[in-house]
């Protein structure tokens, strides 16, 4: 199960996939636009093409742009 912490509010979500999937699939499942979040696995920045597996702990940081 992939555990996701959504920042800044700290909500936690767990998602079960039958096999390793790309981060883009996790973001789609949660309804996030890849351009609207920064994803971390541990202290490592990951991109939408990186593969995530069961037992991964991800942090999604919502980003905003003010113009």
Describe this structure in words.
- The protein has one helix at residues 23-30, and strands spanning 2-7, 11-15, 21-22, 37-41, 44-46, 51-52, 57-62.
- It is mainly beta.
- It has one domain: Beta-grasp domain (Ubiquitin-like (UB roll)), CATH 3.10.20.30.
- A 5-stranded mixed sheet has the order 2-1-7-4-5, with helices on one face. A two-stranded antiparallel ribbon has the order 3-6.
- β1 and β2 (11-15) form a beta hairpin.
- It is globular, with a radius of gyration of 11 Å.
- The termini are far apart.
- The model has no long low-confidence stretch (mean pLDDT 93).
Number of helices: 1
Helix content: 10-25%
% residues in beta strands: 35-45%
- CATH domain topology: Ubiquitin-like (UB roll)
- What is the C-level CATH assignment? Alpha Beta
Main beta sheet: 5 strands, mixed
Low-confidence segments, given as residue ranges, are none
- If you average the pLDDT, what whole number results? 93
What is the β-strand count?
7
**What is the count of distinct domains?**
1
SSE arrangement, N to C? EEEHEEEE
What coarse outline follows from CA principal-axis ratios?
globular
Full CATH superfamily name? Beta-grasp domain
User: Helix/strand/pairing class, anyone?
Assistant: mainly beta
């Amino acid at each position: 199960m992939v555990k996701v912490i959504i920042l800044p509010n700290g909500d936690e979500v767990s998602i079960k996939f039958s096999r390793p999937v790309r981060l883009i699939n996790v973001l789609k499942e949660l309804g996030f636009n890849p351009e609207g979040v920064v994803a971390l696995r541990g202290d490592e920045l990951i991109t939408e093409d990186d593969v995530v597996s069961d037992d991964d702990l991800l942090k999604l940081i919502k980003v905003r742009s003010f113009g």
